[in-house]
Amino acid sequence: MYRTTQEHRAGAGSAHGKIILLGEHMVVYGMPAIAVPMPELRAHATAYGRAAAGSPAADAVLDAQRSRSHLVHVDPRSDGRSADSVEVAAHAFMRLVGYTERGVDLVLRCAIPPGRGLGASAACAVAAVRALAEHLECTLTPEILHRAVQHGEDMAHGTASGIDAVACMAAGPVWFESGWVQPLSGPARARIVVADTGITGSTKAAVTQVRTQLASEINQARTHLINAAALTRMAAEDLAAGRIAELGKHCTAFHAMLCEIGVSCGALDRLVAAAIEAGAAGAKLTGGGLGGCMIALAEDDEQAVTVRTALQQAGAVRTWTIPLGRR
Ligand code: PMV
Q1: What residues does 322 pair with on adjacent strands?
Q2: Can you give the residue ranges of the GHMP kinase C-terminal domain (predicted)?
């Protein structure tokens, strides 16, 4: 499935960040979720064959080391075990296409802050696999890309639903349910303000905590799963109809449920309260939680500016404003 030329050319790949509008954590158990891409935050990867000192490829790798870009060595003959989800995904890709020759260096430049629920690990893995496929001059089918990235994501999340891998390649909002994906549309004027608490969260720790919590209270778990699915379905209808006020209420209700299952924190709750106080239609944490980012819904640009200012005053270390609908 790949060409066996001695000197494969350098390959390049990229992907973008995402937010989860509704459904995080419950999506791990087959419930639906809605994600929205953040194309302004991108991860880029370049793949080079292990090169002789002094060659352009070796210089690029040295530059990466000096500039502290993320550098990953992938050896197809290793067992593929690594604490680095990009290496796991890249190694899985090599295995899936039957590549067993020399090792590859991957240089990653990622503008998506890690540990913030914005999909950095999935975007880096997708960018890396795309770069690797171009480098090895092999056909990259959506199935192989997804399977390789999921290996890395399972390592990063414990058990990954697959939503991040889908959202970091999506062109607009998407509905995700048990691996099934459907593009959604949303009102052109509405905005999402994304705010960073500055606290690094761990998706793996959060997913593990939720699993323990749900297993210890089976009846309550059932109620949470049913409520989460209902909120997400209503949100999709509101999104399609452009009912931002109603959509916002569902988001805030989802945040309350995420608080109950223990994945929010003081900083997230303060930002959610500040956004609602400033007139946002709704607000919630996004992604794994235990730190990371929250989102607030605004009817239009003007309201987004007011909400964004309030979030900055309430301690957000970074904010972004993105369209809710397709671009
Ligand atoms: O990568 P994060 O922090 O956006 O988390 C992804 C969403 C979870 O539902 C928490 C995990 C998953 O695999 O779906």
Answers
A1: 192
A2: 235-315
CA of 175 to the centre of ligand 1 (A): 14
pTM: 0.92
Calpha distance 278→265 (Å, rounded): 20
Distance CA 54, CA 217 (A): 60
Q: What is the Cα–Cα distance from 175 to 185, expressed in whole angstroms?
A: 10
Q: Which two tokens stand for residue 224?
A: 């949470």
Query: Residues lining ligand 1, judged by CB closer than 6 Å?
Result: 20, 24-25, 27-28, 117, 119, 157, 160-161, 163-164, 203, 207, 287-288
Of 67-81, 192-206, 223-237, the poorest mean pLDDT is in: 67-81
pLDDT value, residue 154 = 87
Atom of ligand 1 nearest to the CA of 23: 9
Distance of alpha carbon 103 from alpha carbon 74, whole angstroms: 6
The kind and range of the H/E element at 14 are: strand 11-22
Mutate to test the pocket of ligand 1, among 18, 21, 22, 25 (most ligand atoms within 8 A of CB): 25
